[in-house]
Amino acid sequence: MKSLRDLDYSVLQQCMHCGLCLPSCPTYEETKRERHSPRGRIALMRAIADGELELTKTFGEEMYYCLGCLACTSACPAGVNYAELLETARSEVEQSGVLATPTRSFIRTAMLRVVFTRPRLLRAIGRLLWLWQTSGLQTLARRAGLMNLLPSNLRRLEPQAPKILEKFSHQLIQPIESPVAPRAALDVGRSMLDVERCPAPPPSTVRLRRVVVLTGCVQDLAFADINRATVDVLLANGCEVHTPPVQPCCGSLHAHNGDNVTARDLARRQLDLINPADFDAIISNAGGCGSHLRAYGHLLHDDPAYAQKAAAWSAKLRDIHEYLVEIGFRPPTATAPTTTVTYHESCHLCHGQKVSAQPRAILRALPGVKLRECAESQWCCGSAGIYNITQPETAARLQERKVGHVLATGAHIVATANPGCHLQLANGLAQHAGNSGAPAIEVTHPVVLLARAYAAEKLG
Amino acid sequence: MADLIDQLTQRLGTHRVLTAREDILPYGFDGTATLKQLPACVIFPRDAADVSFALILAREHGAPVVTRGSGTGLSGGSVPLPGCIVLCLAQMDRILEVDTANLTLRAEAGAITQKIYEAADAAGLFYPPDPGSMKISTIGGNVAENSGGLRGLKYGVTRDYVMGLEVVLADGSICWLGSKCVKDVAGYNLRDLFIGSEGTLGVVTQVLLKLLPRPAARQTLLAAFLSMESAAETVSAIIAARIIPCTLEFIDQTTLRCVEDFAKVGLPREAAAILLIETDGHPAAVAEEAAHIEKLCRDHGASSVRRAANATEATQLATARRSAFSALARLRPTTILEDVTVPRSELAGMIRAIDAIAQKHALAIATFGHFGDGNLHPTILTDERDHAEMHRVELAIADIVTATLERGGTITGEHGVGLAKKAFLRRQLGDASFELLRLVKRALDPDGRLNPGKIFD
Ligand SMILES: Cc1cc2nc3c(=O)[nH]c(=O)nc-3n(C[C@H](O)[C@H](O)[C@H](O)COP(=O)(O)OP(=O)(O)OC[C@H]3O[C@@H](n4cnc5c(N)ncnc54)[C@H](O)[C@@H]3O)c2cc1C
Ligand code: SF4
Ligand code: SF4
Fold first, then answer.
1. Least confident residue range of A136-150, B61-75, B247-261
2. Whose C-alpha in A64, A285, B136, B156 is 20 to 30 A from the C-alpha of A149?
3. Which residues of B touch A78 (CB under 8 A)?
4. CA-CA distance, A130 to A171, in Å (whole number)?
């Protein structure tokens, strides 16, 4: 069990309260109150470790008012490990039960322990949701005013639910795909000639890289096309891609919400399924998952059976953009009309994983793309895991701020690399389009744009 | 106390008066290591009238008042006292006016220094003082500490840019001191009395600042040295050559490595010391000065001299330097920063003295600072839980102070006396000057309501 008192005290001491992190903290900016700042939260955690403060409900709420966006860790010159502090504090809050209510406990168990630990169940629910969204039932129900029967919390969220795709990752991606041959088999309607002109470098010059792609939970249901695109760009860069069809959840949702036990369990299951020794790299394409997946080494460091494997895993985990840049990805060559693209950085990609230049390098390499930076690209959009469910007001204000910056760039497309941000932006932009009548800006993943550019080469 | 809080709440509303333990605990300290104390409450006034109201109430109830900006102070100035009201100006953060005809800027005291710089910059103007904490320090805090910064060598400190102040006195009266006039000698210069007064004489609620035209060009250089001595000699040589760069900063190897770990801007990790030098002004003059400085560096044994390729790189380097103090916290849990200034001719000797003190007390001391100003920040890397070591730290601090005073230096160049330095103040000032300070304090704050126990008892 994680608790603040058991934590190596120097992690808490590391904060020398210089305050340099304050201006990058969205919740401090909202209220200008120390308690809502990284320095303030750390002070509260330390007070608990020192026995100067009891673990109260207010403390629990404070820990969940924090977005977990980790902007403070990028800003902190002292190198304070805020991510670990926050996870520990939340875990202790959960153990103490100060926030427990029957509804909260039910929802937490149902979501964290039941749904998000069973990939097949999650897919089944996804399938039902898809039916609901596409069969006309949703429209019918809305028209009949049935939505008003839902509790207000759910009613607010229902239109924000991700749009489920018809096909999930395992229906779009073969368990193993190699750069040339199997790719041709999959691509219906493309002649062998096309395949011959396809970009895979001659095998003699480049050793085949072997990678495994993690498909995620929400990503798998709502953005399986992004997973497909991830596989495509890896193939186009000479990788043999392994994508196990049924993958456990990575556990990031659990770790970030104080359920350390389940998080560790899920990590072990992940390691049982995928042996890092078999691959050159383990690829994640979602900022939030990646940030947690990188930390398996630390998460399981005290587990004698798994520590070593987990460390190897951490060493091989790469964000897709990071990996593409690392292996010197091939810039696409097709000509394309000019489009303006802007980039919103997922917090856990830029602050959690320190991957910030690489997605831009990929966007800049796209033919016809003009990358226009948006103000505060590293400022949280308010999605922050399940933050828009737990703190709707703050989440909405952050969403508005973000949408404003995106619109100000005049871009046609906004690229981002995390399903939560993706949904938050898409909802915010759609709402704006609805109000103003202007066409909604497309939200997509940088890798999708890259895959499109590679595909255009073959056509052109 | 309950009555006092009730009345404050009635005027300000519940969200501007904090009393819950979770709320006030994070106001128990500032940037100074090892000092902390819980206040009775924290309040967020909206304007001078609210401040006045609070001060009058505090007098009626006999409660001490500690003014606070962002709590980045490094001498314990905004650390609370038992039973005190913390008057936090962080929410009074508006920039009220940028007067491009008179080159002035007026802002509320809680405005962040960086925002003031940016507002001036947006109008093509320049606010030079840039303390390392400028990203978050408030202008009121800067005035109260008379903060310096990286550009102090050429442009001076906060005092040199304050034209006027709105101050609330201990009795609640609100006064304006100073004006937009470049020349103004009506009466005593009371404005200056409040600059550097560390919250003990009055509460600054507004400031009127002087701005400069933005320099047309800038060039930043980074010179690496294989010994501290040659870096110090280079500084003397630059000054002796009658060149006043705007920035002449120094970082030793320990600090340099911590900074590089954080900022990753490609600092030469092998160097024993580096100098960060910036010149600004007319493009032709800048080019000539930069070339001259580069030559002087090489003549004095610089192992490498790098010029920032563009403004972004220059900003990166300056930002990296600003993180020096916090970055040092990577090495040991507690970082105790000193702030001594010696006449510039004494720099090399002072550096040697600090080295000797570190050895004598078996402590790790990293040093960086504003070399051009003679302002050094020897920073002791320690752990507050190690009592034996903390005792040696105290002895080392006393030795550093002695070494400074022997060289005609001052016990604080920019961070103020606060709680941390008050034991040494009489020694530096002498009895008569020290008593004069007390006399001033007694005249303005007869009950000792404002920040009691800071600067002196
Ligand atoms: C990383 C770091 C780097 C730093 N670098 C520098 C530097 O380069 N140069 C430098 O000079 N300092 C530096 N400092 C010290 C500190 O940032 C400055 O002293 C700053 O001016 C404090 O501003 P603040 O708003 O945080 O004030 P606080 O810490 O809140 O208060 C400082 C003092 O001012 C008083 N005060 C605050 N506001 C008011 C007001 N409105 N009216 C009256 N009294 C008031 C307080 O009572 C207290 O005594 C640094 C600090 C840190 C943590
Ligand atoms: S920047 Fe780091 S050390 Fe400074 S207050 Fe924030 S968390 Fe603490
Ligand atoms: S994680 Fe984000 S919201 Fe939380 S303290 Fe850090 S910067 Fe603030």
1. A136-150
2. A64
3. 326-330
4. 15
Give the CA dihedral B148, A74, B338, B445, nearest 10 degrees: 60
pLDDT at B72 exceeding the cut of 90: yes
Give the residue on B whose Cα is nearest the Cα of A9.
Answer: B333
Q: Tokens 């033919």 map to which residue?
A: A367
State residue B248 phi and psi, 5-degree precision.
-145, 85
Query: Which of B26, B91, B112 is opposite residue A40, by nearest beta carbon?
Result: B26
**B29, A43: Cβ pair inside 8 Å?**
yes
> How many CB atoms neighbour CB A360 within 10 A?
18
Which of A12, A13, A14, A17 has most ligand 2 atoms within 8 Å of CB, for mutation? A17
| Cα of B236 to nearest chain A Cα, Å | 31
Say how far apart CA A422 and CA A449 lie, in whole Å: 14
Q: Which of A286, A280, A277 is closest to A250 using CA atoms?
A: A286
B169 touches chain A (CB under 8 A): no
The CA distance from A344 to A402, in Å, is 9
Q: Compute the distance from residue A426 Cα to the ligand 1 centre, in Å.
A: 42
Shortest-distance ligand to the CA of residue A37: 3
| Cβ neighbours of residue B421 closer than 8 Å, sequence gap 6 or more | B75, B411, B412
- For chain A, say whether B25 makes contact (Cβ under 8 Å): yes
Instruction: Tell how far CA A212 is from the center of its chain.
Output: 17
Residue type, B33: A
Please provide the size of chain B in residues. 457
Band (pLDDT 50/70/90 cuts) for residue B257 is very high
Q: Are A405 and A94 in contact (CB under 8 A)?
A: no
Asked if A59's CB is within 8 angstroms of B71's CB, the reply is no
* Chain centre distance of CA A385: 8
DSSP string covering B159-179: GGGEEEEEEE-TTS-EEEEE-
Helix H or strand E segment including A446: helix A446-459
pLDDT tens-digit map of A133-189: 777 667 767 666 666 655 566 566 666 677 777 788 888 888 889 886 444 334 433
Q: Any idea what DSSP says for residue B200? A: S
**Considering Cα of B404, then B410, then B415, then B420, what sign does the dihedral take?**
positive
Q: Do B326 and A32 touch (CB under 8 A)?
A: no
| Distance in angstroms (rounded) separating the CA atoms of residues A417 and A415 | 7
Run of H or E residues at A103:
helix A102-108
At A78, the amino acid letter reads: A
Q: How far apart are CA B283 and CA B370, in angstroms?
A: 25
Distance CA A357, CA A350 (A): 9
d(CA A418, CA A290): 9
Question: What pTM, to 2 d.p., does this model score?
Answer: 0.91
Cα dist from B337 to A15, B33, B205, B208, whole Å? 15, 8, 29, 31
**CA pseudo-torsion sign B120, B125, B127, B132:** positive
What is the dihedral angle through the alpha carbons of A186, A189, A192, A196, rounded to the nearest 10 degrees?
A: -80
Helix (H) or strand (E) holding B336: strand B334-337
Model ipTM value: 0.94
- Yes or no, beta carbons of A33 and B23 under 8 Å apart: yes
CB A317 within 8 A of CB A293: yes
Tell me, letter by letter, the H, E, C secondary structure of A346-397: CHHHHHHCCCCHHHHHHHHCCCCEEECCCCCCCCCCCCCCCHHHHCHHHHHH
Residue with tokens 């103007």: B125
Lowest mean pLDDT, pick from A133-147, A239-253, A361-375 = A133-147
Look at strands B41-43 and B17-18 and give their pairing: antiparallel
Provide the pairing of β-strand B104-108 with B203-210: antiparallel
What is the rounded distance in angstroms from the CA atom of residue B23 to the CA atom of residue A89? 17
Q: How many CA atoms lie less than 13 Å away from B178 in the CB half-sphere? A: 26
